[in-house]
Amino acid sequence: MTLTVRDFRPADAKAVADLRRLNLPYLLATPQSIAWEVSTAAAAQRLRLFVAELDGRVAGFVQAQLLHDSSVPGQASATPHVHPEWRGRGIGRALLSSAEEHLSAAGATHVFAWAADEPTAHAFAERRGYRRTRPGRFLRLALAAAALPPLPAGLPPGVRLCTGAELEADPRLLYAADAEAAADEPGDVPADAMTYEDWLLRTWEHPLVDLDLTTAVLVDGEVAAFSVAATDGLGRYSSAMTGTRRAFRGRGLARLAKTASLHRARDAGCTEAFTGNDAANAPMLAVNRSLGYRPCAEEWRYVREVAPGR
Question: What sign results for the dihedral spanned by CA atoms 257, 259, 261, 264?
């Protein structure tokens, strides 16, 4: 069988989305979102999506990119995904080698990757010289049957709920809250250099983001907390980001935003809800547990140092 590793083509979008959903059922993907992410990638991202083709069929893929929204230079990511039927044939190794070569030439010094919490995935990463750093947890909520907390009958003076769509006149209100919350998230690489222009494209205009289900808590006209919602048109809902600005933390506002978003999602016909958290993000894990989410998968972050410009 002939294996070829090449750049993504628009005609690959459905096969890549199908494989992503097969391997990562807790993450949303559609052909439209895959093609859009490749075609609109920022120049600083240096994104390349490599596809492994085995006798004319897409057998795997890897998205290689610089983490350009971080103030730490040289950080990059690349996680290979291989169809379960064709594992053990060197496809993952070939994909990762192509990704590392590209990222090294783009100036990367560290390449981060995720591995499922299973022996074969850990062994693959370690054979490639990657070291384990921290776990991430994915949680699922059977939304159609969930006993969601009721929304409060009334809110304090100056506090109101609104949808993302209601912020279309000034998306910067949501950006300011998202940027502040993202900078404080636990992780290996700080996401503390996200520009408004990049956020507008990567979040606000992303084809999976549903502004009618995205919810913000306004306090005296300022977004104090929010929950960005994504949907795939297949009944699945995902929390793309939930957070609270520093001055408003400890008041249950993130839980309020997410609760309201979940109620809207169920009313809109969504039947499953997914979310993911760093294992060290105790406050958000507690919020999700209180809403009925339960663990469905765990992954580990790995990192390898590479020589830039090779």
Answer: negative
